[in-house]
Amino acid sequence: MNILVTGGAGYIGSHTCVALLEAGHSVIIADNLSNSKEQVVDYVQHISNKDVIFYKVDVTDEVALNEIFSRHLIDGVIHFAGWKAVGESVEKPLMYYMNNLVSTMLLAKVCLLYGVERFVFSSSATVYGDNKVPFKETMDLLPTTNPYGETKVMSERILTDIANANPAFSVSILRYFNPVGAHESGLIGEAPNGIPNNIMPYVTQVAKGKLEKLRVFGNDYPTLDGTGVRDYIHVVDLADGHVAALENLNEGVHTYNLGTGKGTSVLELLKAFEEANDIEIPFDIVDRRPGDIASCFADASKANRELGWTVKRDLIEMCRDAWRFEKNL
Ligand code: NAD
Ligand code: UFG
């Protein structure tokens, strides 16, 4: 298939482009590089030894989208493009609603116009709010406490309504848990601007000496050791989940959790990182971070069953690959 990957120069998008190319698909990337670098496109080509077509465009630009769709015969779209910083979304809600919702609506509009019937959307476990773990796709969604999370809830709803009104338009909604790690080549990975919000890039920057110590946000949660529990998933496994979703997409709307099904606490993650890389990570326990929940992990059985997809990489590989990438930066 010929797949348009929006946000394909980003963290998850770049790994998914590699997975698509390795599975024999062709890739067109549309990315405005607002949170990525063009060099990533070269790395994707280098790793896969295949060419990709790259457009530096904003996917909220309808004219630019029409041009891409009229130039190429596109079989499907994977829509990663969007902004994802929770705190920033609270400060700049309009910017987040504009970018994340307008991009989704315009892409769907152009897909319908050009008869493109496969649409895979990047959603997030954040849509479950503070539900009871493990999270299942059938659960009622709960408020997400931030505009970023709301853009995911709203995008899911918009795509569902569009698919219901256009039976040939097939949508796969993928709810990611906590993607970490990097490609084993060490060439592509997560390189956030400024001080990282997420734990793994923070830990790798502490390991490198760029940051002094990790702040563990709270040790009084109702979890095994009091620290927050998350479902960390290797980004290459997550990327493979997109290929499986695309290749198994049937008519209608299908929602899948992409996680490992296993919860890991902050202290367990630290221990795994130290073990995998033989580096000590200094840390302080500080107050809880506002908006955080105690536990978040998936029931991933639907994706296992219907997509024939399972994770292959464990926590040690996630830590080892994340560190290899950071060392190369
Ligand atoms: P990322 O920031 O690395 O990648 C997003 C890419 O989209 C970037 O390359 C950016 O330049 C591009 N982009 C943003 N707005 C654009 C626009 N209007 N036009 C064109 N390009 C645009 O983020 P990521 O971690 O790879 O996340 C990809 C998707 O997955 C996002 O939609 C994100 O919300 C979602 N997601 C991420 C996580 C996570 O923990 N990383 C978890 C759940 C969901
Ligand atoms: N944490 C720390 N110190 C840090 C950073 C994080 O202790 O410096 C803790 C958090 O409190 C949490 C865990 O590490 O318990 C994971 O935090 P992250 O910030 O890495 O990830 P979140 O689970 O908060 O959120 C991530 C993405 C969201 C997405 C969600 C889906 O950032 O966009 O996963 O589950 F919606």
Which strand-content bin applies to the residues? 15-25%
Total beta strand runs: 14
* CATH homologous superfamily (4th level) name of the domain at 2-180 and 232-259 and 300-311: NAD(P)-binding Rossmann-like Domain
Q: Order of strands across the biggest sheet? A: 3-2-1-4-5-6-11
Which value, in Å, is the CA radius of gyration? 19 Å
- Oligomeric status: single chain
What does this structure look like?
This protein has 329 residues and is α/β, with parallel strands linked by helices. The chain has a domain at 2-180 and 232-259 and 300-311: Rossmann fold (3-Layer(aba) Sandwich), CATH 3.40.50. The chain has helices at 11-22, 39-48, 62-71, 86-91, 93-114, 147-165, 199-208, 235-247, 266-277, 301-307, 315-328; strands spanning 2-6, 26-30, 53-55, 76-79, 118-124, 170-176, 178-180, 214-217, 229-230, 232-234, 253-258, 264-265, 283-286, 295-296. The strands form four sheets. The chain has a seven-stranded parallel β-sheet with strand order 3-2-1-4-5-6-11, with helices on both faces. A three-stranded mixed β-sheet has the order 12-9-14. Helix 1 (11-22) runs parallel beside helix 2 (39-48). The mean pLDDT is 97.
